[in-house]
Design brief:
Among the domains are: 81 residues, no CATH class; 34 residues, no CATH class; 81 residues, OB fold (Dihydrolipoamide Acetyltransferase, E2P) (Beta Barrel), CATH 2.40.50.140. Helices cover 27% and strands 17% of the residues. The protein is an alpha+beta fold. The protein has 7 helices and 5 strands; from the N terminus they run H-H-H-H-H-H-E-E-E-H-E-E. The radius of gyration is 32 Å and the shape is elongated.
């Protein structure tokens, strides 16, 4: 096992022993993220696995103890599958349940000083009046908690996921419900930057709003199977931008019904002109 993973397993094991209070490391898990990330890259760990671990540990202090247990357990299961690490009974494969303090038994009632036989019976005038018992409010229904075993059900148990979709998800390492919950995005793309066409620069990731001046399908002939490309000219008043979509001929018809559109993507360059290829719109 790589040194970075061995260190992580020791931290997880110690955190489980301390009841998931984020004190296995002085300052919490967030203090070791940067150093562990550099060590993991030196060990050659997959980039998506490194990002999953660092993202979860950076927000570890915001979780409740039960959620922390779920997070560490899910991370280690993913590490096992990705790096082909066998199960370890003394590891974090089956984290212990958090111990809750038990209530102490109520002390025994003290015996009365005078025995019941010698106690004088109260007269009718002195007898206390009985008060009707106050009705107890109904207790709220218990909310069922999701057991750890239930997170290990295959994704085919979810509605809408059949064998075909499951096969696609298996390619990215999603086999169970837990895998889906802890499958974090690899990157974040910001499409909030809105720019006019005349201010666009090569390599930028921007959003452009304009009017479709022209849209058509063009055939590309060459080696192999012929391909189709949809080309459109987008005009926002400050300039014209050429946009292309490959092997999506249906887009041309939709553009004819939507003369003004918003497209987001990366600005490329072709034959000296700025273009945008396969943008989101």
């Amino acid at each position: 096992m790589q040194p970075s993973l061995e260190k992580l397993r020791k931290f997880f094991r110690l955190e489980a022993e301390q009841g998931y209070n984020n004190r296995a490391i002085i300052g919490g898990f967030a203090r070791i993220v940067d150093a562990w990330e550099a060590e993991a890259r030196q060990d050659g760990l997959p980039e998506d696995l490194i990002e999953a671990v660092t993202q979860r540990l950076r927000g570890y202090h915001l979780l409740s103890p039960n959620s922390r247990q779920e997070a560490l357990y899910g991370l280690w299961r993913r590490i096992q599958r990705t790096m082909d690490i066998p199960a370890d009974k003394q590891g974090v494969d089956a984290p212990p349940k958090r111990k809750t303090p038990q209530k102490e038994a109520a002390p025994a009632e003290r015996e009365s000083a005078a025995p019941p036989a010698e106690a004088a019976a109260p007269s009718d005038a002195e007898a206390p009046q009985e008060t009707p018992p106050t009705p107890k409010s109904a207790a709220p229904p218990a909310v069922p908690s999701l057991a750890l075993e239930e997170l290990e059900v295959p994704i085919t148990e979810l509605h809408g996921i059949g064998p075909r979709n499951a096969k696609t998800l298996h390619k990215v390492g999603i086999h169970t419900l837990r895998d889906m919950l802890y499958y974090f995005p690899r990157r974040y793309v910001d499409y909030s930057t809105l720019k006019p066409i005349r201010q666009l620069r090569y390599g930028e990731t921007v959003t452009v709003i304009g009017t479709v001046k022209q849209a058509y399908v063009r055939q590309l002939h060459g080696k192999g199977k012929p391909r189709q490309v949809v080309e459109a000219l987008l005009d926002d008043g400050s300039g014209v931008l050429r946009i292309s979509w490959f092997n999506q001929p249906w887009i041309a018809k939709r553009l004819q019904n939507q003369p003004q559109i918003s497209v987001s993507g990366k600005i490329d360059q072709y034959l000296g002109r700025l273009v945008m290829t396969n943008p989101e719109w």
